[in-house]
Amino acid sequence: MFNKAERDALAERVISFYCDSGAFDSNVTWQHFKPEGIPKTTFYRIIQRYNDEKKVKTNSPPGRPVKIMTPKVLSAVQNLYTDNPSITETEAAKKMKLTESTLGHIKRKKLKMKSRVKITKPKATQEQQNRSIKNSGKLYRKLYRKKGTVLIIDDETYVPADPSQVPGRHFFTCSDPENVPIEHKIKQKSKFPKRFLVWQAIDEFGNVSRPFITESTMKSDIYIKHCLKSILSKFIKKYHPNSPVLFWPDMATVHYAKPVMQWLAENDIDFVEKDENCPNLPQARPIEKFWALCKAEYAKEKNTASNLEEFKKTWTKISKKVARRSGLNLMKGVRSKLLKISQNGVFSVK
């Protein structure tokens, strides 16, 4: 692609030859310049312009000359975002001595750049990251130590009794917000909403256990009696009666109380020891995403659960629905994530 100076220089050479050596014969002139690889349309446009208008040089492009969005400025903006992708548009405009609207136009229209949302990850110390990298590799290898081993993950979460109190973004649609009733423009939030503690387990095939739900906090005796004995052991017998399992609890203190570890050992349930566990690593534990999907479904409920049994019935229905729809997809990448983390670090997976 020629710029104006190059086009004008070419035109002067073509017309000079056309008038002097070419004897005003366009074909002779074309045969002379053809080896240079000049596009034929470009060549004949030069000849035609000279014959019709007696002009050699091209016209300047219409409009005002470019003073701000010059190639130099575009390159500087490109380099600025390459060096610091996290810089805000306000800071970048100030640094480049441009208006924010001009910088935004350069970003989006000229450079085809697009701002993207950062992925939220738990803040982990370097020591925790090193442990997770080391232990994710151990966990990955442990899953292949016994042929047919099935990974089972458990976790707890708190869920508000009132579906409208489930955290999340809410919207209203209108042409003029001044004409919208106030109840549609706000989301009321209770300071201390009533909530339930939910515990569940999920295996790597997406099967989910029935939930244990309580209004109190989790303690080791409750965890053993209501979660491990009443639910986990039956869950294993139902789905994996003849397969070895590896139980991966999170690092809550109650999960590693001495009575808990003793019960697991007595019942021949292989589990991830505390010193082998991965701190602050929800990206490798899809049950965290499972909770988010369940809560999103629960937020659609119209009525607040009036008691524990009513909430239990609703949550059981929702968790089964989410497990059927998304359980397998959530869990099928766990092993590859563990391997990738052990090789490339804790932020190498989403």
Automatic annotation (TrEMBL):
What InterPro entries does the record point to?
Answer: RNaseH_sf
GO MF terms, alphabetically ordered? nucleic acid binding
Classify the source by domain of life. Eukaryota
Q: What is this protein called?
A: Tc1-like transposase DDE domain-containing protein
What is the organism field in this record? Answer: Tetranychus urticae
What's the source species' lineage? Answer: Eukaryota, Metazoa, Ecdysozoa, Arthropoda, Chelicerata
